[in-house]
Amino acid sequence: MLDSLTPNIEARVDNWGVDETKTIKMEIALKNPDKYGAKNITLEIHGALSYNAKIPEIVGESEVPIQVVSEVRDPNSIINIDIVYEGPGGNITTKSYQFDINIKGYELSKAEGTEKCALCRGKIFKDTDMVTCAKCGATYHLQCAKRVGKCRICGTVFLLE
Ligand SMILES: [Zn+2]
Ligand SMILES: [Zn+2]
Description:
By secondary structure, the chain is mainly β. The chain has one helix at residues 142-148; strands at residues 10-18, 23-31, 38-47, 51-58, 64-71, 79-86, 92-99, 106-110, 129-133, 139-141. It folds into two domains: 2-99, Immunoglobulin-like; 106-148, Wheat Germ Agglutinin (Isolectin 2), domain 1, CATH 3.30.60. A hairpin with a 4-residue loop joins strand 1 and strand 2. One zinc ion binds at residues 117, 119-120, 122, 140-141, 144.
């Protein structure tokens, strides 16, 4: 009977940011809107970063915030979160979430020829490599983006190799 009682944990990523040391800080909010408590919760993050946490119990609607601080391992990857937990009858549930946030902070493309560089103010010539800030849309020569390391308009860090 208790085997059919399956708590339903939900996860949400909030308030994330990357600094110049390639460290990502973010908050994962977990909640269990089901009336049955979830026990022995294991949170595992892989992909863009690597992180593990254990939470004894989550009961009720109120969100449980998990503060994650980790080195970015792969700026081009997404964040995969696997949550494993136990229901009241000891039954195990596994849930997976993917968060496709732009950790590297930019998009790389070829210029149209109409853009200007936010660092040196120069024209970005057609078909040359251009970096566009993922947050504010400012454009840079690739070399200028490498030199400045982060968007000088909005402060977003560019994780360029
Ligand atoms: Zn430039
Ligand atoms: Zn920006």
